[in-house]
Each structure stands twice: as C-alpha cells, then as structure tokens.
Write a structure and sequence with these properties.
Largest sheet: 2 strands, antiparallel
Number of domains: 1
CATH class: Mainly Alpha
Order of helices and strands: HHHHHHHHHHEEHEEHHHEEHHHHHHH
Structural class: mainly alpha
Strand content: under 5%
CATH superfamily: Flavocytochrome C3, Chain A
Number of helices: 21
Length: about 475
C-alpha cells in the first residue's frame, strides 16, 4: 500500500547521508567562541542580566498530554513522541538535547537526525557552517556536534559581533528574505528587528536534496496557501502517515508568517516593540530588555499607545483563545476519524484513483490546523488568521470524510474502529509508541555521553 501511494504521488524521497564521527571535545574554534561570548557579558552587562532572566521562564506545557489527538495526527514522526510548549531562551540547547524527538546516536552505518536541529539554538551554528559549509554541517548527525555547542541563543544570534548593530547570521533566513523581496540590508531598524526574530520564529523544513539543510518555503510567498502550493508543486512530504497513508506536511512555529499579515504589522508594531521594550538601569540609562517577556507585563510601556484598557485586551485574548481552541479540538477529532476511515478504505481495497482527493483533503486540512496551532502567541498575534485557518481546515476534513464515506459504502464497510484518545498514554498505545523504552534509551545517552562530554548549556535546568 505504501509503495502504491508513493509511486502514484511521485514525492521527493529523503537523501541518505553517511554518518560522521562525533568529536570527543570542543574544538579550538568552539573555545574561542565561548571566550567571545564571555567578553560580551562584560561589554553589555545590563542586556546580559536581562537575558539571564530567561532562566526564570521555566513553565512549559506537555502539549501531547493536553491534546492527545495530536499523537494520532503526528503518528509516524518524532513529534508524536514528545512535544512541549517553549520556555525561556536559556533552555534552548538543553531542551533540544533532552527531548525524545532528537533521540540517541544512530547505530553504525545508520543516518540519524540531522544536525540542522541545532540551527536556531546556538551561535555556534553559524561558526560550524563557516567551518564545514552549510551542507557539510547539515549532513552531520545531531549528536555529532554536541560537543561543539557551548553557547545558547546569545548576542551574535542577532547582532554583529561586539556591536549593537543588528545582523541576520542564518543563511536560510537571508535566502528567505530575498525570496519575499525584503533583503535585510534594505530595511529600517524596526523591520530588521522583526526579521532577526523571524530567522528562527518561522516555519521551515529540511531540504532532502541538499543534505537536509534548513530551508524556508517562501518561493511563492509566506502565507499558508503559497507555502502549500510550494510543497504540492514539489510533491514534498515530511512523512507518510502510517494509518491513512497521507503524505504529511509539518508547520513549525510560524510566528513571522502570522505577524506579517497582522494588524500589528500594518501598524509597524514588531516582536521587539512588544516583547523587548526599552527599560532603564539603576543609573537611569535606557537599554533594550533581552528577557523576551510577555507584552502585557509591560502594558504601560508598550500597549497603552494603542490600547487604552488592559482589561479589554485580557478579555479579548481570553475570547480569542476560547474560540480558537474550540475549533482546534473540533478539527483534531475530525482528522483522527478521517485518518482511520482512510485506513479502512485502503484495507477494503481502495485504489489511489479512488483515494486521491480524500487523502489530499486530509493533507491540506491537517496543514492548516498545524499552521495555526504550531504558532506561539496566535491568540494575540493574529487571531483573525487563526480562525480562518481552522474554519478552512474544518471544511477540508469534512470534505475528506464525505469522500471516504462514499468509498466505504462502495466496499460495504459498515463501521470503522476509532482509537481511544482520552489520554496521551492511550494515544501512544494506539500508534505503538513505547514511551518507557524511548525514555530509558534517552536517559542512558544523557548519562553516558551528554553529562560527561557536552557543555553545561546542554544540561541547564536538568541538573
């Protein structure tokens, strides 16, 4: 069945790249990078102290426990194993190191997860790309470069080394801005600030024909329809869903895309405006806070010029959240049923010519659900877009289920068995994920390799 789907749809297959050996200790260049980071702490003490406060942002939510239907929707991918909401920048390296999604070192001769998973976590990545080449870096396994990572989301991720001047050091971001005709050097500082955040708070995929390097899919534009057009034109998928055989697309925190079409963007209000306001030190000197905190924490400084009442904003946010979450849960329930109805149709003898439209409707519906819900801050950034995405997603999955119902009737299928999604454990059992085994393997890797050989930043918050 799987061969049937792939051959009919002619999707791009992932390239195979040989595994490279992991270094036993940090390189000289890595140590030099760490020394430069330390010097910036002395040069910009107030900014450093505010950045350090991101360590206070420890709360995070187990999204699979809160929304177990997502386990079914992401079945066949690492996202079904573990998925938490994000926390402060200071945890970026440690969280990606410890998550089950990045797994453990592959067996000899196997290809593991790409080193591209480090791309937005550390300023060591641009250094490694310069040393190895962009594709040379991405061709390595995630665990290959662990000892090279000594810094976490820091000054040179956003600034020219040693200066306040903004920079865009990630090659995938430079390429993306060129695609949408917003080259970094042509923007004012306000827009540059948004683009600096957008080099990581943006959706992306690993480009299989380029050794899994990070690529932002903006050839036709950066809205959900244009990105979908890009993926469909390329016949691209991230994985084949093991239940429905749907070629799945995955959205990843598309904050920049959501912001770009928002009222805030139209008004010239950017990420920096709301989340990194100007503040004063003990001597009354003004500096930009690098705590990257919630906008409402600074209502008087950043919101009041446009919004007179904090309570009205809070009320609007709660209403947005209630409405959007209700639609999201509806979509998830419908998609779970659609995946299992598709499986029943395949098992009954469905052919690709019969199933094509239904499978594509599932693909497009799940893409819009994911594009909405994978974004952090949707309720505030662009709730209008969120509602539109989910409304369309509901229409598409209902269309898919209508088509599948007709197919099931042709094969005289009277009923379809749906999984228990009342809890994360039940959903994991439904798709065959053995969480205890994965967790034990991860703990062993952390104890025997990370704790002994990797930098302290890989353990921050876990010691």
């Amino acid at each position: 069945m799987l061969t049937k789907v792939i051959s009919a749809f002619l999707f791009v297959s992932l390239a195979s790249v040989a595994s490279l050996a992991q270094a036993s200790e940090p390189s000289v260049a890595a140590k030099e990078q760490a020394a430069r980071d330390a010097s910036l702490k002395e040069k910009f003490p107030e900014q450093y102290k505010s950045w350090l406060e991101t360590s206070e942002q420890t709360e995070r939510e187990d999204m699979l426990a809160s929304y177990p239907a997502a386990v079914i929707l992401w079945a066949g991918s690492s996202f079904a194993k573990e998925y938490h909401s994000p926390r402060g920048h200071h945890f970026a390296v440690a969280d990606v190191t410890h998550t089950l999604r990045t797994g453990v070192p592959p067996k000899a001769g196997d290809k593991g997860l790409s080193a591209s998973c480090w791309t937005c976590k550390t300023p060591d990545v641009p250094r490694l790309m310069n040393e190895l080449g962009i594709e040379g870096f991405s061709a390595k396994n995630f665990t290959d470069v662990g000892t090279e990572v000594n810094s976490v989301v820091y000054c040179t991720d956003c600034h020219v080394d040693g200066k306040a001047e903004l920079a865009l050091p990630r090659p995938h971001a430079q390429d993306a801005m060129a695609k949408v005709h917003l080259p970094f050097d042509k923007q004012d500082n306000n827009m540059k600030g948004a683009q600096v955040c957008g080099q990581c708070h943006v959706t992306y995929y690993f480009q299989p024909e380029r050794s899994n390097k990070v690529n932002i899919p903006w050839i036709f534009g950066n809205n959900v329809d244009d990105i979908e057009k890009y993926y469909d034109t390329r016949r691209f998928y991230e994985w084949i869903h093991p239940i429905s055989q749907t070629p799945i697309l995955k959205a990843r925190h598309p904050e920049f895309e959501h912001w770009s079409s928002s009222k805030h963007a139209d008004a010239g209000v950017t990420c920096i405006t709301c989340h990194m306001p100007e503040t004063k030190d003990a001597k009354g000197n003004t500096f930009t806070s690098h705590k990257v905190s919630k906008a409402l924490d600074h209502f008087d400084e950043v919101c009041q010029s446009c919004h007179r009442s904090e309570q009205k904003i809070v009320s609007a946010l709660e209403n947005n959240k209630t409405t959007i979450n209700a639609k999201a849960r509806e979509v998830e329930g419908l998609l779970v049923k659609a995946h299992y109805e598709a499986a029943a149709a395949w098992d009954a003898g469905g052919t690709w010519s019969q199933m094509n439209d239904a499978i594509m409707a599932i693909r497009h519906s799940q893409w819009r659900w994911d594009f909405a819900m994978a974004s952090h801050g949707l309720y505030a950034h662009n709730p209008e877009l969120g509602n539109t995405l989910l409304d369309t997603s509901i229409e598409q999955v209902n269309y898919a289920r209508h088509l599948l119902d007709e197919i099931l009737k042709k094969f005289d299928v009277k009923s379809v068995s749906y999984p228990d999604i009342s809890s994360k454990a039940a959903a994991h059992a439904a798709v065959g994920i053995e969480l205890e085994k994965l967790t034990e393997a991860k703990k062993k890797f952390i104890k025997e390799d990370v704790d002994k050989n990797w930098s302290e930043v890989s353990r921050h918050g876990y010691e």
